[in-house]
# Entry
Amino acid sequence: MASDDRPRLRLSDAPQRAFAHVLVNTLIVSVMNYALWFAVTFWIYLETTSVFATGMIAGIFLVATAGTGVWFGSLVDHHRKKSVMQASAVASIVAYLAALAVYLIADPITFTDPGSPVLWIFVVLLMAGVIAGNLRSIALPTLVTVLIPEPLRDRANGLVGTTSGVSFLVTSVISGVLVAADGMRSVLVLSIVVLLLGLLHLASITVPGDRASTDDDGNRKVDLRGTLRVVRGVPGLLALIVFSCFNNFLGGAFMALMDAYGLSMVSVQTWGLLWGALSTGIIIGGIAVARFGLGSNPVRVLLLVNIVLWTVTVLFPLRSSIVMLTAGMAVYMLLIPAAEAAEQTVLQRVVPFERQGRVFGFAQSLEQAASPITAFLIGPLAQFVVIPFMTDGWGAEHLGPWFGTGADRGLALVFVAVGVLGLFATTLALLSKPYRRLSAAYAASRAEPAVPLEVVDPMSSEQAG
# Structure
């Protein structure tokens, strides 16, 4: 961890104050965007009682996120970041207004049929608005490069992680309450109003140093080939992105099986409250990164954090215990912000600013594509292979006496296997040549702040105050 003699974030400085305003604006808008995603999932299940329909919504979101990342990154690079955020809000508002019109005009009975074209037009319009909000998640880390001095970017990235935790905590509560009270109408109206207010607030923010970053040849295309060339040009960077993709691939097992595993031990009400409490771990973890930083080698921090996360994944399923599960997930939530902040900090330093949007978008596309693939694969594998294996198969006979038997222990075995695989891969990465090369490239890089910034010495500032 960084020592206290490092300069601190000073939100009284104009660039850092602008960052704080943009961060709060992004938090509020993101809460409403994701509240709509949660709300439409809840609402469609209540209307249709179709698990297939809710699964399709998750699939649409993940596939669209993976498919638009590189394009969104190009938009971020070739336009002012504030303008991109404004365009994102306008696109979301237009999509939500169209969805609200469909909701009010259509016969309510059409929304009870999972095969209704009107229902899926409504869903696609909503998802288009939510996906348009992803432009912000790519633009925000590039604004960290513009507005925050290089030695403080890890701490700023920690604040970004904190806002993610807050939005995760608030979103499900808002969506559940509004859907229960008034279906989708109240959620849509509130989202449109909040996004309009956010658009007005964003217009009032002056972002020092905000600029479009075109290539030397004036190329304003998506240019995936050029982005790959930049990624491959930084020693070890492609390996880092592939490693993160592999982690997300394994993390798809959590997406597919965690709810079923938790609900095998507690009621749905308890499970929902438990996840609400656990999400505060992301907030605490993000605040810790903002306070202490990530030290001189974020690449090492990223891999060490993953060693801990995969070790936890091996340990918590060894016994069928809600206490062990809660403890394991608490550690997971606390450390996730450090891992995400570490990756962002490395990219902000080693990737030229002119390409950061496309590299962040490329990383998002590659990493987001992994989780749904695992989710689609792991469910059938667990259902038709692992659960029978641990119910009345060889596993139940030979592993059952100490590990337990039944469907829940089959799920637990999947978690253990995933944890062992992740631990093995992370250990290899920590010992690998790409890790050493990327660490050396990060240490050798002397990236200058995107605009002149005054870094406040905490000692002199404290004494003056």
In short: The chain has two domains: 10-206, 230-450. The two ends are 26 Å apart (CA to CA). Residues 447-465 have pLDDT under 50 and may be disordered.
